[in-house]
Write a structure and sequence with these properties.
By secondary structure, the chain is of the alpha+beta class. The chain is built from 6 helices and 10 strands. The N terminus is likely disordered. One of its GO terms (biological process) is rRNA processing.
């Protein structure tokens, strides 16, 4: 077997080594999620929660594959985000942000970890209150959870991406909720967190995706957000963008010395995966 053939085989889930890396990344990111959940308390600063999640992933992955011939990239595949109440997703503030959690908040946590580019992503919704969740908040939680369970069962060889889109909307409607528009579930490959095969949460003229069929040994991150509103995100507060990803298919010709320095730092520290501006 040539080196190219061996490299190609390593990308396939039929390789035990690849499966091991996925499992290891999943174990780490699930522990990181539990850590962040345990720290979600009234008056906790959101930026501190994000830092705890990212730091745990970096520490745990940093202790793996240290004595190998080929350097194994590993670490945070998507920064820890803590999005509260009507903030849809991807809130990972800068160090100067003073936003804190409050009693009764609905907290959406998401993050991802990778080992050698094989990515495990997790998300969870946590409510800051004692006792069971009731009312419309409970409807939204149940709609999202049930839709996710059904989606996981539909992502199977031979099924289509539109099967998932149709099913999750029907489930949300049963709880008198809406699936939030603009949320995409991507196929993931080695070092690719947003692959070409996509499951759109709500099909409309603004977010069309190509029809696709799921195939054996593919990996997907299923991302579902349910709302008691109309499911159409609105810009209520212009939060500064804090998560970026380098466009590896583009070349940059920067004139300013400061720009070249920043780009060099990003290229070295975050060559492919999304990153938080806190760390840049």
């Amino acid at each position: 077997m040539s080196d190219d053939e061996r490299e190609e085989k390593e990308l396939d889930l039929t390789s035990p080594e690849v499966v091991t890396k996925y499992k290891s990344a999943a174990e780490i990111v699930n522990r990181a999620l539990q850590l962040v959940i345990s720290e979600c308390k009234p008056k906790a600063k959101i930026v501190d929660l994000c830092e705890k999640g990212d730091s745990y992933i970096r520490e745990q992955t940093g202790s793996m594959y240290k004595n190998v011939k080929r350097k194994i990239e590993r670490g945070v595949a998507f920064p820890t985000c803590v999005s509260v109440n009507n903030t849809v997703c991807h809130f990972s503030p800068l160090a100067s942000d003073e936003t804190v959690l409050e009693d009764g908040d609905i907290v959406k946590i998401d993050m991802a970890c990778h080992i050698d580019g094989f990515i495990a992503a997790v998300a969870h919704t946590h409510v800051l209150q004692e006792g069971p969740v009731t009312g419309r908040a409970a409807d939204a939680l149940a709609a999202a959870n049930t839709a996710a369970e059904v989606a996981l069962r539909l992502v199977r060889p031979g099924r289509k991406n539109k099967d998932v889109t149709e099913a999750i909307q029907k489930i949300a409607a049963a709880y008198d909720c809406k699936i939030v528009e603009g949320v995409l579930s991507h196929q993931m490959k080695q070092f690719v967190i947003d692959g070409n095969k996509v499951v759109v949460s709500v099909s409309n003229p603004d977010t069309r995706v190509d029809d696709a069929e799921f195939e054996e040994n593919e990996v997907y991150a299923i991302d579902i957000v349910a709302s008691t509103g109309d499911g159409k995100p609105k810009l209520l507060d212009e939060k500064q963008t804090t998560i970026y990803k380098r466009a590896v298919d583009k070349s940059y010709h920067l004139k300013m010395k400061a720009s070249r320095f920043i780009f060099s730092e990003i290229s070295q520290k975050f060559p492919i995966m999304p990153f938080s501006a806190r760390l840049a």
